[in-house]
Amino acid sequence: MKKYTDINFPAIRMRRTRRSDSLRRLVEETNLSVNDLIYPAFVMEGKNQNESIKSMPGIYRQSIDGILKTAEKLMSLNIPAIAIFPIIDKEKKSNDGKEAYNSKGLIQKTIRHIKSKFPELTIITDVALDPFTTHGQDGIIDGNNYVLNDITVEILTKQAISHAEAGTDIVAPSDMMDGRIGSIRNALEKNNFHNTLILSYAAKYASCFYGPFRDAVRSKDNLAGGNKNNYQMDPKNSDESLREVALDINEGADIVMIKPAMMYQDIITKIKSEFAIPVFAYQVSGEYAMLRAAADAGYLDYKDSVMESLLSIKRSGASGILTYNAIDIAHWLNE
């Protein structure tokens, strides 16, 4: 019987570079840093408001004073950007979502307050109508509850300009209407906002993982049994994302977003390999809640599972990641 030591093993042994921590660090291909992080925050009216979100443990709706404290924390951790999403009072919602472009509205006020205190913090603002409509859709609807494209684009453009006037760095249309990037880019140029960036949610899928977000911004009940399938992308489609991204780049997008992130890493990789443009990805509320619930139940280690999930998104090609775990991750990276 041939002895184990007599077996002629191949010269290449993949485990050699895994032998020690220092060797593993020297050959690692993907590196996650605070520079990759964007923190999504929910802002509400009032003062000293700090409401927990049941479906997103550890995440809160905050009034502007609380958002400023969060912004200060982001600056101290060297996280480069905050993305703000509004919780609109019911009496300010309407069928046409006109509160979205109110120059004295909640988001517009929040932008001004953050910029006055922390001018170096990059602000990303959501351009969409679902927080502002009584029906919870991202646009104007007809009698059959179908979202009308062109009239919606007109309102989105007004919304984007109001954000630029308030001082946002990046407007981020998340609605998936056709032609809205070109309309917004043209309006920004005409109004001399040449340096305002557009982060286009270019490949946003009609995903079931948005539920906790809709709970957070209180649009879930308005949407009721409806869905957004007639404008967000079909999860069964992949090649379609190439057309969506190409159109938005041609219309003037500076950065494109893939959403959700964890479940659509094949799309991130496809877009990153096809286009020479920064690609962001959004680890959405349902993905956050899923990991958090599993960790709280003792099924997963919270830190290890979160870090692995972010590394996988970065490895797939994302150059910026919106994640509700950003503050925790920054602390872990600084340990």
How would you portray this structure in words?
The structure is a single chain. With 335 residues, the protein is an alpha/beta fold. It has a single domain (31-334), classed as Aldolase class I (TIM Barrel, Alpha-Beta Barrel). Helices cover 39% and strands 17% of the residues. It has helices at residues 21-27, 64-76, 106-117, 149-166, 180-190, 211-216, 220-223, 240-251, 265-274, 285-296, 302-316, 326-334; strands at residues 37-44, 50-52, 60-62, 81-87, 122-127, 140-141, 147-148, 170-173, 197-204, 255-259, 279-283, 320-323. The strands form two sheets. The chain has an eight-stranded parallel beta barrel, surrounded by nine helices. It has a two-stranded antiparallel sheet with strand order 6-7. Strand 2 (50-52) and strand 3 form a beta hairpin. The chain is globular. 44% of the residues are buried. The model has no long low-confidence stretch (mean pLDDT 94).
Q: Radius of gyration, Cα only, in angstroms?
A: 22 Å
In sequence order, what are the helices and strands, one letter per element?
HEEEHEHEEEHEHEHHHEHEHHEH
Query: Roughly how much helix do the residues carry, as a percent range?
Result: 25-40%
Question: What is the molecular shape?
Answer: globular
CATH class: Alpha Beta
- The number of domains is 1
Architecture per CATH nomenclature, i.e. the level-2 architecture:
Alpha-Beta Barrel
**Cα distance spanning the termini:** 53 Å
SS elements, strand count:
12
- CATH fold label: TIM Barrel
Alpha plus pi helix count = 12
| Approximate strand percentage | 15-25%
Give, in spatial order, the strands making up the sheet with the most strands: 1-4-5-8-9-10-11-12
Q: Which homologous superfamily in CATH is the superfamily?
A: Aldolase class I
Mean pLDDT: 94
Structural class: alpha/beta
> Which residues sit in consecutive blocks of at least 5 with pLDDT less than 50?
none
Largest sheet: 8 strands, parallel, barrel
